[in-house]
Write a structure and sequence with these properties.
Blueprint lengths: L1 H10 L4 E6 L5 E6 L5 E6 L1 H4 L2 H18 L6 H4 L12
Antiparallel strand pairs: 1-2, 2-3
C-alpha cells in the first residue's frame, strides 16, 4: 500500500493524499486541498494493476480536479461566434 500512496502523492503533489484499503483489493483515494475541500475516488483492484486502466483513472481524476477548479473553458467560448445558414440543395 505504501507504494500506491507514494505514487499518488507524487502525482497530486498539491494535495494531501490518503489511501485506505478496501476489502475487494481496491483503494479509497482521498485528495484534500489546502482550502479543506476533499475529493474522494475509489479505484478497483483491476484499475490499480493494469497500467492502461490506471492511466485512464488518473486522467479522469485530473479532469475532475480541473473542472472543480473552474479551469475548463466556458462552453460558449468554445462555440463559434459566427452563425450561418446551412446550404440548401434543390
Amino acid at each position: 500500500m505504501d507504494l500506491i500512496q507514494e505514487k499518488f502523492t507524487s502525482l497530486f503533489s498539491a494535495y494531501d493524499v490518503t489511501t485506505q484499503a478496501r476489502p475487494d483489493g481496491g483503494i479509497l483515494l482521498t485528495l484534500r486541498a489546502a482550502d479543506g475541500k476533499q475529493v474522494k475516488r475509489t479505484l478497483s483492484y483491476g484499475q490499480l494493476h493494469s497500467a492502461e486502466q490506471l492511466s485512464w483513472a488518473i486522467s479522469a481524476i485530473r479532469r475532475d480536479l480541473a473542472e472543480q477548479a473552474s479551469e475548463l473553458p466556458v462552453i460558449s467560448l468554445l462555440q463559434s461566434q459566427q452563425r450561418f445558414a446551412l446550404p440548401t440543395y434543390r
